Amino acid sequence: MQIKLLTRNDFEAYSAFREKMWPTYAVGGAWETIEQKYSRNPHVGLCPGSGLYACFDSSEIVGVMGAYPMPVTFEGLLHPGHMLVDWAVLPNYQRGPTFVALLHELMALPGRKYASRGAPESQNVLAGVGIQIPSVLAAALLQPFRALLLERLNFRDFALPSPLCAIPFSLPGRAESVPPGELEAAIPADLPHTAFVRREADFWEVFISGRLENGALSLRLLGERCRGSAVIKLLDVGPLRYGVLLAFRTEPRTPQAVGRLARSLRAALRALKVCTLLATEADADIRACLETVGVHVIRKPTHWWALSKPSDTFSAKHVRWWLTSADRDSHWGFGPPSVGVSGLRSLTHANA
Amino acid sequence: MHKNRVEDVVTGILHDALQLEEGFAVSNATRLVDIPNMDSLGRVRLVIEIEKVIADRLSMDEIISLESVGQIRLLLAAKGKVSIEGKDGDAAFAPPDDCQSLS
């Protein structure tokens, strides 16, 4: 058994793994998305060791785990690290040490370690090694009936990226799509004692270049005596379209500006026939934006995990975290399927 | 009573990690893949429980080498946490051939 960082040279072995792992899900673990997420992502350079790792049994890949770069800024300093994601182990190997070996190897990479919420079965394991970072996931309903259909029938599990035209276009409500290179980083209002990941234009340029996989769109928002920007990803399930708010920036940073720019965003989303806008409520501005965008907002608590290491440079428990939907690695595009045999769910239901 | 039944810290680790049913008996020859509730997350819990007992991190080789209850016992013995002697003074088990590197 050997664990190594995957490169383009491993493409054939990885393709064989995909076919065995997701035989009926052609886009599960798409290599294009992996290249975007782990190679072209400019944060990789800030977080040594980033990438998708595979466990080999002779020449066969039997499991994978990703070290997704998480360059956290705290008190003006950069604290490199990784979110451990994209877990998948072939069914026949799920009772063996493949997963724990991958976890062990990636935990030893330099920097802090994090995990997203993950499956319910994994919570007690993660609680044993990590600290919860509480968060709120909100859904702003623009078209409540369609939004209800989307949610109640679990249609989001079957969504595909919206086939948007890459040419910049104008939208009602003083919004226009703009090249991502024109974006400025969205950052928290209160920087002291706040930990966050700063995403500059170079990040968004790479991310939005993968719009065919992720449906991303960068918008410039204008309002009376204010301006701002938003990054959303749009996904379609048949006639239903929903969005995820990845970044929201306003200038000046006042409640009035947030309200005006949120109204511009709302008009744009309505024109795009978006029925629901999902977002992680990192702060009061995003919360206020969602309140303006939707006729109703539904919230539920969620969390990330900070996986503790002796080398941690600050305690995850004693800081204010500003994590947005952009911090969820799944926004890059096609990951493992949400239904069927995949990822962590499969890890806990071995077929051996 | 099974001759090789393990009635010690190793059993405690297995029960804590895998929430085994009361009365489920393991011997040193029991393979980990044959234990109910053993899956990828179970392996993680098992490693966490072992690391708690030895107050140290396991190496990758040690993690991969754990294939049977006897190998857990040998590992703990190598760390000075258990004796490989039975509680009656008899040898509790014969280490499998592939366990020698841990002893």
Short structural description:
The complex is a heterodimer of chains A (352) and B (103). Chain A is 26% helix and 33% strand. By secondary structure, chain A is of the alpha+beta class.
Structure description:
- Chain A is an alpha+beta fold and 352 residues long.
- Chain A has two domains: 2-116 and 328-347, Gcn5-related N-acetyltransferase (GNAT) (Aminopeptidase, 3-Layer(aba) Sandwich); 136-302, Aminopeptidase.
- Chain A has helices at 11-21, 31-40, 98-107, 123-129, 144-152, 201-209, 211-214, 255-271, 284-293, 343-347, and strands at residues 2-5, 51-57, 60-69, 72-74, 77-79, 81-89, 112-115, 130-141, 160-161, 170-171, 175-177, 194-197, 216-223, 226-237, 240-251, 276-280, 296-307, 320-322.
- In chain A, helix 8 (255-271) crosses helix 9 (284-293).
- By secondary structure, chain B is mostly helical.
- Chain B has a single domain (9-102), classed as ACP-like (Non-ribosomal Peptide Synthetase Peptidyl Carrier Protein, Chain A), CATH 1.10.1200.
- Chain B has helices at residues 9-18, 40-54, 60-65, 69-78.
Q: What is the straight-line distance between the termini of chain A?
A: 18 Å
Radius of gyration of chain B using CA atoms only: 13 Å
Tally of distinct domains of chain A: 2
Beta fraction of the residues of chain A? 25-35%
Low-confidence stretches of chain A: 338-352
- The ordered string of helix (H) and strand (E) elements of chain A is EHHEEEEEHEHEHEEEEHHEEEHEHEEH
Major interchain interface with per-chain residue totals: A-B, 26 and 17 residues
Helical fraction of chain A equals 25-40%
Overall form of chain B: globular
What would you call the structural class of chain A? alpha+beta
Total beta strand runs of chain A? 18
Q: How does the major sheet of chain A shape up?
A: 14 strands, mixed
**Strand count, sense and closure of the main sheet of chain B?**
none
Please provide the ordered H/E string of secondary-structure elements of chain B: HHHH
Fold-level CATH name of chain B? Non-ribosomal Peptide Synthetase Peptidyl Carrier Protein, Chain A
Number of strands of chain B: 0
Q: Architecture of the largest domain in chain A, CATH level 2? A: 3-Layer(aba) Sandwich
Oligomerization state of this entry?
Answer: heterodimer
Discrete helix count of chain B = 4
CATH top level assignment of the largest domain in chain A: Alpha Beta
What's the pLDDT, averaged over the residues of chain A?
Answer: 89
